[in-house]
Amino acid sequence: MELVNRTEISEFFLKGFSGHPALEHLLFPLCSTMYLVTLLGNTAIVAVSILDVRLHTPMYFFLGNLSILDICYTSTFVPLMLVHLLSAQKTISFIGCAIQMCLSLATGSTECLLLAIMAYDRYLAICRPLRYPVLMSPRLCLLLVATAWVLCLVKSVTETVIAMRLPFCGHHVVSHFTCEILAVLKLACSDTSVSEAFLLVGAILLLPIPLAFICLSYTLILATVLRVPSAAGRRKAFSTCSAHLAVVMLFYGTVIFMYMKPKSKETRISDEAFTVLYAVVTPMLNPVIYSLRNKEVKEAARKVWGRSWTSK
Q: How far is CA 194 from the centre of its chain?
């Protein structure tokens, strides 16, 4: 019977903002612009960090990976969301929904770990400057990033398989603009406790624990910076770290609101608005925050831009 109930669903209807036509007309140009800025800004950071040898350091290696994650994350659902904002046919196939769910979970989860890795990198660079080149070797950088990607992919595949194997008994209207796992679980007509338990464990491992690690790292960084006798040295350290802290607060604040708040059966419009905030706005702001607050990135961008025009 469970198999029959499951095969009744061949596609899902993504309700999204369909009950608010005026909001859809407003969101399309806004989200299109933000997605374009996200692609251009993050691609520029990746290109600059590769082309300028002065940026071949652990900090910019991690920043480049963060930019790649932002591009992948937003691309899992924003293009389809833009199509649905202009169309009355807001459907996605069962397989497409599962793939979208898995990829968005994997990239979002990896970003949580990567932000913690970046905090650790800043801690070593500021608090252990003499041993930093040895402690944060290229091999360790690759190992940290690869481990984060692999662990989060395995976690996301497991959560997706458990969620999509549940019987939906013909319920196919997802009260969201993407196949967000919490919204899909609300359609299940059987016990979802196993899936919810996996999500809770994952949320604890990827939200409060990395956030506590980040807070500890920056507490130690602050204590070290305040002991620096040079005012210029303190300003440089604060400038480097403030960009990362701004990204951390924006990303973790909105994600914790979504995944650690009490669950309700009905999805409110505020939930979708917060999803837009952390899933569309944050990836757009990341390159802006890092480039505006980072003198090295701006100088490297000018150098690469000037070289490209000279070659023409």
A: 25
